[in-house]
């Protein structure tokens, strides 16, 4: 722990060059810290605002050696970081935060839900599915329908399929590539909420206001923070987030996505061991946003305040929606964030807008 | 004007790699614009967050050619840009904003005050001083003491000296290097105020709340925005700023420094044709800060709102004061901005803090 806190003038390593890395770079710069990006892509969104970029595969030993030489602490902006990368970095004396343990749990949906339940946190019912027989057993035990998901990989609604009956089991498994899966019971929720939560190196915890999130086709469309919610719901979400941070001995920011059921109970859907799209509203709604908070946490700095200063409605700009920037730039209540991506493929996250209004009492 | 507005994905050129350039880079990035820095210094604060850096003298024709090829619009973060640089850039088809005219006026204190008076804006009394005889005449006509300043160069209180009587004239001129000077009568002010003002390519004007500023040894120490001030003072400051923007046919952000006299009259001290230290409070006190506003203006975008969301007290961190970052990072009301500078020479601006409080009604 002798290297912490990381001092201004030193560098933070970031695996991944997407928009989350980009916004981490901007936050690091405010605090006088340099960012070094490792990404396989040239001209990544993050590289444009980073001190240095190493263009290489995430598990390239030479690249990781260069990164470890420049940075005493390395973080990541996506959860599918290969385990070998973190092992190599640790072996070279670079601390990876959040920890490889948090990463491993989050990378496997079966491990994740098992871990959550083990920590006393509620999820939907689920079953391991490695074969057609196991899927049929799950349908019998948990009832139909079930949401079949690959245990690893998949995001934004990819790698999952609903199974209504036993006769569909074989096709469903084939559609997902016959790899290890998890079958989940429906959540029967009235809405989705999320909490951005941070934990420092000394165990200090800072929780942001609850966020309400809206998905379309498995992709986050909108998020509103602070969410309108009863004190009881907020307290339960805070209990869930704090319990998870502590159980993982977590360092950094994470996003917990939850279902709010009709009876007011919260179920954890999943967590992301990184800054999260449902927390982009904090960029304009809180004095310390999730990106600065993450940098503070992994650098061993004290955490910042998390209270909201504005109510913010965040809307993702997908594909050519970002072409509306001239109109959006004209809206006085709207703060525009564009990610510097070249090609506007349909559905690709090109930016977001934060629309500000006064806090509701 | 066919190149405006500059679209996301395009680049903004910035002459100068200091902290103002750095904060311009961060603002440009939020809007999806890349920044290209031209600076003679390696590892400048701005370079660490810029897409590209060209390390060369400001008047290096090859460097300017590279810059003009990358950027349709070029701005600057300091006012002593050599006129040849802007001429070369214009010749290469790159638009320089603010205009070379604004730069030329601001670079020469005699031209500046003459221009201000010509636009109907009040200043202290002053006289051209090219010789000992002229300084003695000025002392006779304007009275003593006078503040003798070099017409060009000098900043943060450098290049100026008080002259009490005619017998000191020769020594004073020698101390300043016997170059063209201006002699100014004292302002007899009760406090200093400043206004950050922006003008877009279509003539749209946006004015920030009045700022109160406090200098020590000629260097800005603190600035508070919005300043406590009567409606009359604010209106007069707004009239001055708007008149100046229009008279210069200005594009971008400028900072006007003013003296508030005991009788409530405002005198213009000077203006800086760029983002300004007295506007750093807007980073945390307004939804669109002066840096984003400048980028919007020069890129031909609509200007953003300027209303304050918080009262902010900005304090510069000079020299080793920035070493207090671990304590400052712990203050919940304090937002820390560090510039990524290597050597903390005494008096050097290493960063600033913005201390937030609720707006006063």
Describe the 3D structure.
- The structure is a homodimer of 361-residue chains.
- Helix content of chain A is 28%, strand content 29%.
- Chain A is of the alpha+beta class and 361 residues long.
- In chain A, strands 10, 11, 12, 13, 14, 15, 16, 17 and 18 form a 9-stranded antiparallel sheet that branches. The first copy, chain A, has a 5-stranded parallel sheet with strand order 3-2-1-4-5, with helices on both faces. In chain A, strands 6-9-7-8 form a 4-stranded antiparallel sheet, sandwiched between helices.
- Chain A is globular, with a radius of gyration of 20 Å.
Question: In CATH's first tier, which class of the largest domain in chain A applies?
Answer: Alpha Beta
Oligomer: homodimer
**Rg for CA atoms of chain A:** 20 Å
* Share of helix of chain A, binned: 25-40%
The biggest sheet of chain A amounts to: 9 strands, antiparallel
CATH architecture of the largest domain in chain A: 2-Layer Sandwich
| Share of residues in strands of chain A | 25-35%
- The tally of structural domains of chain A comes to 3
- Secondary-structure-based class of chain A equals alpha+beta
> How many runs of DSSP E, i.e. beta strands of chain A?
18
